Amino acid sequence: MTLESTLLARADSTCELCGAGEALAVYAVPPAGDGTAAQSALLCEACSFQIDNPGNEDINHWRCLNDSMWSQEPAVQVLAWRMLTRLRTEGWPQDLLDMLYLDEETLAWAQATGEGQSDDEKVEHRDSNGAVLEAGDSVTLIKDLNVKGANFTAKRGTPVRNISLVQDNPEQIEGRVEGQRIVILTQFVKKN
């Protein structure tokens, strides 16, 4: 069964946010969207366009979140939280946000893109050249690093793919080197 057919069955062939039945497509929910049904949602063209293009929201279109925010699917909950957070100055979205409960893991996923944070609150991870790093990026080590506890040295030039960001520390990322998941200081990597 393909991802699309799985989502069509789960969503009863409708957009999981607004209920529209036309122009449906699989939407991988960032930053964790790994191509599985658990981290994807079935969205109509209008919903996916407005999610990906802040500032182009039709406020009345998003009244559908009153129903879809109660979905049992974490990916749908994450999208509902992000849109309600983006639109909260309108009044009614803040009321819905106050009612919405997300478990810790789902809330961390929802907040991972920085939605709803002011520019001062956002933690930006930057490589040694000042390029902004995002979850899922690939980097290269620019220095030999002794890995404590693993008894090996990560050599200069080693690629580290699909990194994850340490949310509360802009100077650290996590990645897999020689089969070990390690924490790496951003000052020792270069974005590919």
What does the model show?
Helix 4 crosses helix 6. The longest helix is centred in the middle third of the chain and has 13 residues, at 74-86. The mean pLDDT is 87. The chain starts with a helix and ends with a strand. It contains six helices and twelve strands. It has 192 residues and is of the alpha+beta class.
The run of helices and strands is HEEHHHHHEEEEEEEEEE
Largest sheet: 3 strands, antiparallel
Low-confidence stretches: none
User: Which structural category do the helix and sheet elements fall into?
Assistant: alpha+beta
Write out the strand line-up for the largest beta sheet, numbering strands in chain order: 8-5-12
* Strand tally: 12
Radius of gyration, CA atoms, in whole angstroms? 19 Å
CA(first)-CA(last) distance: 34 Å
Percent helix: 25-40%
What is the number of helical segments per DSSP (H or I, 4+ residues)?
A: 6
Let me know the average pLDDT.
87
Overall morphology:
elongated
Strand content: 15-25%
Could you give a quick summary of the protein structure above?
The protein has 192 residues and is α+β, with helices and mostly antiparallel strands. The protein is built from 6 helices and 12 strands. Strands 8-5-12 form a 3-stranded antiparallel β-sheet, with no helix packed on it. Strands 9-10-11 form a 3-stranded antiparallel β-sheet, with no helix packed on it. A two-stranded antiparallel sheet has the order 1-2.
